Amino acid sequence: MQFQNINEETFIQNILQNFPVKEPILGIGDDCAVIPDAQGNGWLITTDALVEGIHFLKDQISSFDLGYKMMSVNVSDIAAMGGTPKYAFLSIAFPKTINATWTHDLIKGLKEACNKWDILLLGGDTVGSKRDIFINITLIGSAPLPQIKYRNRAQVGDAICVTGFLGNSWAGLKALKEKVPVDDSVSHLLQAHFHPEPHLAQGIWLASQNEVHAMMDVSDGLDRDLKRLLKSSKCGAIVETSKIPLAQALLEVSQHNQWDPLNLAMNGGEDYCLLLTVSLDHLPALQKAFCAQFNTFLYEIGLITDTPERLIYQDCGKEFQLKEENFDHFQ
Amino acid sequence: MQFQNINEETFIQNILQNFPVKEPILGIGDDCAVIPDAQGNGWLITTDALVEGIHFLKDQISSFDLGYKMMSVNVSDIAAMGGTPKYAFLSIAFPKTINATWTHDLIKGLKEACNKWDILLLGGDTVGSKRDIFINITLIGSAPLPQIKYRNRAQVGDAICVTGFLGNSWAGLKALKEKVPVDDSVSHLLQAHFHPEPHLAQGIWLASQNEVHAMMDVSDGLDRDLKRLLKSSKCGAIVETSKIPLAQALLEVSQHNQWDPLNLAMNGGEDYCLLLTVSLDHLPALQKAFCAQFNTFLYEIGLITDTPERLIYQDCGKEFQLKEENFDHFQ
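^ inputs. structure came back:
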């Protein structure tokens, strides 16, 4: 895993060095690339690949859920910048052994997602594969340019917030891998893993609020994603771990199985909620309005500081060392 | 191969049934989807996937050529409708065994293509893969809406033309698979296979000519692609096989190896030249102007007829039965 990670990172660094991107293109290093048009809007473009054996196991996820999830993860990238998804392009490679029921259900899942978020699937490429299934979606969205949020706009003194529970999806995957018996709580976690719901309406609403400064989605775990936000914004943060929102189901299942729920919430991934920074003065009003709008909390978890890239975790005010643990997918 | 083909076709049919696309979106069934903007331009969007073991063998194509080729095939789709490529998104999945030299050269090939056609690589996704390499590019181009060419606009009486030699790429692949000793001619065919040059300038120029009615690229072989054009345009065609442009290298290598060059040209693939229909009255002037512009011929190979989807091949006026032979890639 380590070598592969290095290799992927090296590849990305190599790409960035060789393909410098300049204005008018925006959103470099963000969840989407932003192409401004002449009318004051921006096209938001994102692309995500899922690979069998790495991101999913064919006998552990239904193709319906896979179809839904592959659209969800792209929608989350559009939501992360406050955009509205519009047009999707699907590339899929599958081997001869795939049967019609599997592809039929995949399309059903995809369709449910497209219908839900009013996305038009406009094209793609369907090809053979020797062994594994590969799926790639490119999703195009749009937003008024002034409302698009970026991850490099955090300001010193901002409150750091998240829009939902963390760690559920990863706990669901862990339950799956460790064959934990399925009760209501485990089922809740599995649902978070198999059928993630991107915070699209929340993203659009938050993007329309001036006091929201930086925004991105949490797809690779809070710890890793917050570090990316801090790096982009050239600032630091103090996070109070007791404020990290943990679902009752996560707490229960963790207790039964001697898991560390905080570790799952911080180092996990595939949460697909939003991470944002908000002017501290406006936080109470924004939290109240958010709660009225969505009937869920906007969780404040920390503060932006002026020490570039220094991320400090505190547990009730006392410095706390996070276990460096990278959950892998299926490797 | 047969079962897989059916499966891929079935999948595409299933997608089309489930995701009907309507105006204002154009280009349905074309090489690109076309999204009109408010200023009279269209965004042209295409996506193409290449899979190891299906579209390429890692030990038979350099990663430089692979990088260049994967961009070329997408550029050809934009060229097919008369657009100018602008922005690319790359998704790549590779296993841990890939070394840095391989990815470095892939990026170099990609960069050569991007520099050549002035394309900005704006983003993508880099992920692991269990075994095979999977590469997907989504390419976005643009063109003035009235100039975009579609494959459903052929008119009865139009001349059918192609912009270059056919069969070279497939003959190159055949030479590779049959381990034909490499001389100058074989080398020429290998170059066509490994380093295809999409007819971008030709596409843009042809799109600006009103007398060009329908256009697409030849990526899956003339026979198969022409049938698609006829189906879209609800017409038929007579093609004079003696007029199919065959390169000297193809003729020579075919003679040495007892290959049927016409069969390679008609049933082959990956030619990446353009197939178009032109008002017969204007053909001579257009051919002259094309030749003056590009120093190559615009080859007339047949005529559009009024019998829907009836494709007749003639050899010097005598009906000719084309061998139904589908060249596969590496299966």
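Chain B touches chain A through 66 residues (CB under 8 Å). The first strand of chain B starts at residue 33 and ends at 36.
thumbs up if we can close this ticket
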